[in-house]
Amino acid sequence: MVTGTPARRPLRVAAICTGNICRSPMAEVVLRELVERDDQLRGAVRVTSAGTARWHVGSPMDPRARSALDRAGLTAAGSPARFAGRAFLEDLDVALVMTREHRDDVAARRVTPGLEILLLRNLLEPGLDLDLADPYYGDDRDFDECLETITRAGQRWVTSESRRRPDGGSSSV
């Protein structure tokens, strides 16, 4: 007979943008890296990404997003694009969205009342409800700037989440 504290499931987090080929897969890679570096969160947080539109389902991240990650020394792969439909959202605890429109889409599709929806830039500029610009129609500089904002916001989220989980990452959800 096994005794002790029952195993807790990881906190399930998804970065969400429109097509899931630029902003959200970059955020997925960044968050995974930051979680891996944090002793409180390593193994206690599962990170993925998705899009509010079905445009690119199954596609890899945009090559320009991949290049921005590579330039920043982040070589981990992101997930193939997927759709943030009701079934996907049902399996989440936190949705980290890039725009107010994404926030509204996720809120409208949400099945689980406990799903926390966070606007990425509110982690850096609380309460201003600013969107993270889509670099899709831009150049390398736009992708690098987008990645820098994602990284700063990710660092803020990881720091905040570590402080909320002083028990080494166990979650009650």
Structure description:
The chain is of the alpha/beta class. It has a single domain (11-162), classed as Response regulator (Rossmann fold), CATH 3.40.50.2300. Helix content is 37%, strand content 13%. It contains 5 helices and 4 strands. The chain has a 4-stranded parallel sheet with strand order 2-1-3-4, sandwiched between helices. Strand 3 (94-97), helix 4 and strand 4 form a beta-alpha-beta unit. Helix 1 (23-37) crosses helix 5 and helix 2 (63-71) crosses helix 5 (140-164). The longest helix has 25 residues, at 140-164. The chain starts with 10 loop residues before the first strand and ends in a 9-residue tail after the last helix.
Features:
single chain, 173 residues, alpha/beta, Rossmann fold, 4-stranded parallel β-sheet, 4 strands, 37% helix, 13% strand, disordered C terminus
The gist of it:
The chain has 173 residues and is α/β, with parallel strands linked by helices. It has helices at residues 23-37, 63-71, 86-90, 100-109, 140-164; strands at residues 11-17, 45-51, 94-97, 116-119. Strands 2-1-3-4 form a 4-stranded parallel sheet, sandwiched between helices.
Quick one: overall form? Answer: globular
Structural class: alpha/beta
CATH class: Alpha Beta
Parts with pLDDT < 50 across at least 5 consecutive residues: 168-173
| CATH-assigned homologous superfamily | Response regulator
Give the rounded overall mean pLDDT.
92
Number of strands: 4
At CATH's second level, what is the architecture? 3-Layer(aba) Sandwich
Number of self-contained structural domains: 1
The succession of helices and strands, N to C, reads EHEHHEHEH
Q: Tell me the span between the first and last alpha carbons.
A: 25 Å
Rounded to an integer in angstroms, the radius of gyration calculated over CA atoms is 16 Å
> What is the CATH third-level topology name?
Rossmann fold
The strands making up the biggest β-sheet line up spatially as 2-1-3-4
Number of helices: 5
Fraction in helix: 25-40%
Q: Tell me about the biggest sheet? A: 4 strands, parallel
- Assess the beta-strand content as a share of residues: 5-15%
